[in-house]
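Technical note accompanying the year-one report. For the benefit of new consortium partners, we illustrate the data format agreed upon in the data management plan: each record pairs a sequence with a structure-token string. No post-processing was applied to the example shown here.
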Amino acid sequence: MPTSASPVVAAFTRLNATQPLRPFVAYAQPTRLSFIQARRAASSAALYSRLAGPSPAHPPRAVSGAQGKAAVSLAARGLSASALTRAAAAPREAPAAAKDSVVPAGVADATSSVGSGERLLQPDASLALDQQSVGKLLTVWMVYQACGSTKLVQMAPKILKLFEKLRLSWLSNAVVRRTFFAWFCAGEKEREIVHTMRRLKESGIGSILDFSAEADLPEDATAASDLAEAARAHANVKADAFAKEYFHGMHMASQVPHAFAALKVTGLADPEVLYRLSMPHQPLRDAFLAADHDNDGRVDYTQFKDAVLPAMPGGARVASPSGMFSMIDANGDGQVDWVDIQMALGMDNPLARPLYLSDGGAYGALESDFEDYERMVARARAVVQQAAEKGVRVMIDAEHTYFQPMIDHVALVMQREFNAGGASQTLVYNTYQMYRTDALQRMTDDYERGVREGWRFAAKMVRGAYMELERERAASLGYASPINPTLEATHALYDRGAAQLLDRIAAAQREGAVPPALFVATHNNESIERVLQQLQTLQIDTSAEPVMFGQLLGMQDATSYALAKANIPIYKYVPYGTLDEVMPYLIRRAQENSAVAGAIRMEAAQVMAEIRRRMLGGRTRQAHSVASSATSSL
């Protein structure tokens, strides 16, 4: 479609050619934002009441005024209530660590080796193995043996495709269903899924229910316009079906107290739409860093006009760059930082959307993408609202880097709407993959955004699950890999990110403020030990779960059950779905296990020792301590 015919562009050009754009950001225009949220909430209810079924009217909590929002984070800023007005008018400092780096400065302090004294973490295999029958233990042993074979795991996708080609999928599926699926997934039916969650709860372990179907870019793009429109319609039908399954997931999760449910944003929209809307993010970030000549984390109007704005697909269409800059520079100090830009130029600001619109090339969005964006956010809002009504917390999963900017955007919109009520309203957690070179900076920026907008920051930290795919794609398309060059660099970023949030949690608790929330999702015992020691040193109270730990179902059970025994908040990711839907998930689990062969061999040995003990009729058990500090890609 020619850009000259675009009604969005035409209205946009007329508006900012005749008058400066008014600030849109939450802390500058609370009344405006509340109106927009109320309108969107009503739209979500109308669109998705048929999926969720009847429910009491309970719109998302509107963001309060500027003073109310800032009060939530006074302690984090070190401000008294009387200083609030002065702080709002004062120039802001840019978030720390404005420049991206693989291993941030000072990382050695956060990642020094765990002390040589008595370890707080004492994993005990017997706590987990006691729960299993001999038949299940034999299955587990075979799964671990298979995962320990790197060649077999690498060949698994090809083997499955060969069976499919030979029309023998029924055979391969039967084997996978009785082995990997039986161990790493909760099942397909509600009864067996809820049973798995309740069994974990009886052992002091919570659940994060995860519908593990995944979506990715198609291998072949649809070219013809009529075919593209049909594909778009099909994608929206599929996204509605995903939303309906997420509603079902919230229903299942609500049957076990204090549960989470995972949400994959790629299931709520066409992945191609997510890709196009995410595309401008990295060029914009790169342009901002290049324009920031003095490395203070800010740019002025000239730098914005000459370097930052042209990086956007629709930057050349802006008739009044000064009006655009005024919209971003909410406090009027003539400087904007990266958080300012993210807040003002997000897709949730209709005035910013033409910046994302393609000029006819491959870079940027289509007009129809904005409609699909609204549908996606409406689906996400309806799902999270359902979770709020049922007392279920939500974790938004991280996915491929080429979707992640829009996934983060949806997560931040949901956090702004549903995490604004203090500790009792912390419903939405975003996920940060610490194997990414920019992970710590993104966490820092998002925390600062929560401070400015007045909602509780809640983060789940993982190492990451798409490393090989990301590196291969970067190499094939000729861009810098977004993944840390070494495993040690990933460990360093993970441990520093955890230390940074733990310090903020401790500071907030000392001052009686609502702390941020941290979910430590890892199978790395050294990272867990380090966090446990920091909890002790900083005297962090975990009773309200500002800090939690998590592992995947079927992995690192000795650690999970030991944490539960010590009354430390611990959760298992509990995947479910049909075998076809969860097959990509199962392949990744096998690959991740094969990457830590030493740990897998140890777990297999523990399982075999338990089988032998039972076969020999042993009535007593010696606890099998796991001193392993083996690392994982998770």
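Partners are asked to follow this layout when depositing records. Strands lie at 206-211, 260-263, 298-299, 336-337, 393-396, 428-433, 458-462, 517-521, 547-552, 570-576.
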